[in-house]
Design brief:
single chain; alpha/beta; Nucleotidyltransferase, domain 5; five-stranded mixed β-sheet; two-stranded parallel sheet; elongated
Amino acid sequence: MPALVPMIDMLVILVVYMLVHTADYEILPNTKNISIPQSDSESRPRESTVMMITRDTIFVDGQVTAKVADLDAGSAPAFEALRTALSAETQKVAQLRPDDPTAKEVTVMADRTLPYSLLKKIMMAATSADVSKMSLAVIEKERAVAAPNRG
């Protein structure tokens, strides 16, 4: 029985360590059908409303909002559906954090092959929904570790 006490202490320390270090960054939803671009981003993502754009569907916080083909074709109902969903989600966050200036922020997870013309329409919908800031989700590039210089 005395050998069990140090083991329990170590497990408690591990649990506390994991709790502290998992709260340091936001985990974005992952999907296999989106190929996110790579970047040398230095800043960590903040908690925000997530808009995920696959090749055929646009999701706002996990809810289907519009079809990519409809928005790309300039469909007014698709544009309005996206604007309404973004406005509703950012308003919910703003009510939870009234003093936070980043409450109306949106993180866009989009396939790297997404045409810029579609991204521009999405940005226009976000602007009309009073989104204060848009961030593009990227994967951090692997950095090569330089070997120490041995003179």
